[in-house]
Each structure stands twice: as structure tokens, then as C-alpha cells.
Design a protein that fits this description.
five-stranded parallel sheet, Rossmann fold, alpha/beta
Length: 289
């Protein structure tokens, strides 16, 4: 079995083995093994797992890269012994992907960027086009499209929200979870962030720790096991299978586009008084990658 996973930093495994100054991952194999896709692979006794997530990854990118992987997978005409399953941790609908200066770039609305063209686009998007309503409906279309493709190919999948869509002081995300739950495509009512939020041991800085990723993998097994398309061998054999798993995925060698949040964004966050202001500043999902 092959597990293909995609998402943002919550799936990528940010802070699991990052350089303390640059924030760049210094051991991708350890990250692939320790993030929830790797933990899920061990629980499902998979042969290999591909973690295609990136920090600040948008739902635009998740859809594009997953479809690209599915097309390559179909072209290889893998045997029945190479069953594919897909696990997606969807990101914020307000994040976007654009092709700028010859490369796909992830746009987080309230970040600035070192690349001038990307920074100008982000500023225009921030000023004129950020919309909860548009983001919600675009995301519904993305989720429906990917689910329809996976269902047509007979590929088991699990969808969940990686980030908590709670109201934010700058841009209040709408009823994304309500809309998507109505579609019956999402397992469970809690996002990954909500599920781990109350236990400090589940976090390393702004992202889940190894323990947090393992706990979330267990939660996904529980959600998936209730479905008719539950994949994999008996979970009781997983300890005998660990050494055979092949780990791979996206490597991010440098975050050349990203810089600190724009000054006005920090000011807006600080406009909320007292302790609540610092809570928004520390937990706003647009600030961390």
C-alpha cells in the first residue's frame, strides 16, 4: 500500500527537525517518519508514504499536486499489491497559489514577501480580493472536485481540516466546516488544531510535536476504521512492518518568499486589548507557515 498525504505545515511536519534560526528542516527523513503521514503509514502497515505538503501550503496547491500525483500513479498502472490511499489535511481557504516569476508561489494574505512581484500581488490580494465568502465556496468546489475524482478511481481517502477556522480579528473565516460537513466528505467535527489544542505536550512551538502527530494518526485510524473503505492490513502487525516502509516527500530547502507579517497586520492584531491580543498574535494561523 502507498499512502499519499498533502496539506500545509501541519502535515509537512514543521518544527519537528528545523534549524533554530532559519526554520528550515534539517532532516527530512526524520520529519517524514515523525509527522502524522509517517505515523499513519506504520499503523496501516503501508509499503511507502509520500508527504507532499509544504509550509504555508494552500488548498489550490493541495488540489493541483494531488491531481498531478494521481495522474502519474495511473500512468504507472501499479499492480493491485500497490493499493493507493489518500489523506488530505486541508489548509485555510484564504491562502492562494499563484504562478509568479516562473514559479508556483503560496500566498498567505497577511504576509509580506521578499520577491517583489509576489509581494505586490499579495498586497493587492490583501487590499481588494480577500473574501471569506469566495474562499468558502472555492474550497467547497476543491473538496468536491478532489473527492469526485478519488471516488471515480476507487481510491480510499480521508479529508480533514488542519487548521481551526475560528474567528480572527482581521478576516473572519466563514462557515467552511458547516458547508463541508454537509457534503459528507469530512470525517469528524474537530480540526487537527482543535483536537490537539488543549494539551501542551502535543505542541512544539506553533506546530504539533512528535506526540501530537502520533495522536492525530491514531484519531485518523479511528475515524477511517468506521468506514467501508478502511485500508490496510491488520493493525496488530504494524510493529513487524516498520522497517520496510519507504518514506519520501517534498523537501523545502529555503523559504525564499517568506518574511514577517506586514506591519499593519501586526497592528491590527494588537488592537485587541490585553491578554486576548497576545493570544490572537500567537495563534493566528496566517502568522506561522
Amino acid at each position: 500500500m502507498i499512502i499519499y498525504a498533502n496539506g500545509c505545515s501541519m502535515t509537512y511536519g514543521s518544527e519537528l527537525h528545523d534549524h533554530p534560526v532559519t526554520g528550515i528542516c534539517t532532516n527530512n527523513k526524520y520529519r517524514w517518519e515523525s509527522s502524522w503521514p509517517g505515523a499513519l503509514a506504520r499503523r496501516f502497515c503501508a509499503d511507502s508514504v509520500v508527504n507532499d505538503a509544504v509550509p504555508s501550503g494552500s488548498n489550490d496547491r493541495i488540489l493541483r499536486r494531488t491531481v498531478e500525483f494521481l495522474l502519474r500513479h495511473q500512468q504507472r498502472q501499479l499492480s493491485a499489491d500497490s493499493e493507493l490511499v489518500v489523506a488530505i489535511g486541508w489548509s485555510s481557504p484564504l491562502r492562494r497559489e499563484m504562478f509568479i516569476n516562473g514559479a508556483f508561489r503560496q500566498i498567505v494574505p497577511h504576509h509580506g514577501y521578499r520577491d517583489f512581484a509576489t509581494d505586490r500581488f499579495a498586497a493587492a490580494y490583501r487590499r481588494w480580493a480577500v473574501s471569506d465568502i469566495e474562499g468558502d465556496w472555492r474550497f467547497v468546489g476543491q473538496a468536491v472536485s478532489l473527492a469526485g475524482l478519488l471516488q471515480s478511481l476507487g481510491i480510499p481517502f480521508v479529508f480533514f481540516h488542519a487548521l481551526d477556522p475560528r474567528p480572527l480579528p482581521i478576516s473572519v473565516q466563514g462557515d467552511v466546516q458547516v458547508r463541508t460537513r454537509q457534503l459528507g466528505l469530512f470525517d469528524g467535527s474537530l480540526s487537527m488544531e482543535q483536537y490537539l489544542a488543549d494539551d501542551p505536550s502535543m505542541w512544539r512551538g506553533r506546530h504539533p510535536s512528535e506526540e501530537g502527530h502520533a495522536k492525530w494518526a491514531d484519531e485518523l485510524v479511528g475515524r477511517w476504521s468506521e468506514r467501508a473503505n478502511f485500508p490496510g492490513e491488520a493493525l496488530s502487525t504494524r510493529n513487524q512492518h516498520d522497517a520496510r516502509i519507504q518514506f519520501s516527500g517534498t523537501e523545502v530547502s529555503a523559504r525564499v518568499d517568506m518574511k514577517i507579517p506586514t506591519g499593519w497586520a501586526r497592528s491590527a492584531l494588537r488592537s485587541v486589548t490585553g491578554r486576548r491580543s497576545m493570544q490572537w498574535l500567537n495563534r493566528d494561523p496566517f502568522i506561522y507557515p
